Amino acid sequence: MSGQQDWGQQPPPPPGQQPPGWGAPPAGQQPPPPSGQQTPGWGAPPSVPVGPSKYCQSCGAVIAASAPVCPNCGARQADVVYEEPKNRPIAILLALFLGAFGIHRFYVGPIAWGVAYLVFFWTGIPAFLAWLEAIYWLSRSDVEWAQKYGGPVREANGCAIGCLWVLALLPLIGLLFLGGLFVLAIPFAVA
Ligand SMILES: [Zn+2]
């Protein structure tokens, strides 16, 4: 006679057969996992700092204690003392045109790097390194830049960044162009 004593202990019907009106999710949709058991990487915060942390003064996200800018909402944290914020387009321009002499490093720091670039400029290597740095800085976001070089998140002018990309890639475009000319000239040279 178990059928009459099991009231209230019946196992829930298998998913997809629940009566409507239960608040059950539509068939085929997984019920949300209980909190604390979420799939890793799913609803996890973007970056939980490993070291000392604090709460963002704007959005309350847990961020690194030393972060001058919240990676979550971009708000400046008043408890972090800034150095003079550095302008990204200016830093990139300096790296592209004067990077061989380390001028961009005198601007954003560390100065010691700038000195090293200056001492070894005659090797040509600093120019190449500065070009790589310009590409790297171009590929960063405004928030990343502000986190590293201080100041409020200032959205770099998209047009300026676009022009700087073209400038930075000009050497490659020039090389391709010269290479193309060379290939085209081969038949004439052979004949
Ligand atoms: Zn925030």
SSE layout:
Layout: H1 2-5, E1 53-55, E2 62-64, H2 88-98, H3 103-108, H4 111-119, H5 125-139, H6 142-149, H7 158-190
Antiparallel strand pairs: 1-2
Zinc ion (ZN) is lined by residues 56, 58-59, 61, 70, 72-73, 75.
Q: What is bound: which ligands?
A: zinc ion
Percent of residues in helices: 40-55%
Low-pLDDT runs of 5+ residues are 18-26, 31-45
**Average pLDDT reading:** 78
Question: Which value, in Å, is the CA radius of gyration?
Answer: 29 Å
Q: Describe the strand arrangement of the main beta sheet, using strand numbers.
A: 1-2
Number of helical elements: 7
How many structural domains?
2
If you had to describe this structure to a student in words, what would you say it looks like?
Strand 1 (53-55) and strand 2 form a beta hairpin. The radius of gyration is 29 Å and the shape is elongated. The protein has a two-stranded antiparallel sheet. The longest helix has 33 residues, at 158-190. It folds into two domains: 47-80, no CATH class; 88-190, no CATH class. The protein is mainly alpha-helical. The protein has seven helices and two strands.
Please outline what is shown here.
With 191 residues, this protein is mainly alpha-helical. It folds into 2 domains: 47-80, no CATH class; 88-190, no CATH class.
Index terms:
binds zinc ion, two-stranded antiparallel sheet, 7 helices, 191 residues, mainly alpha
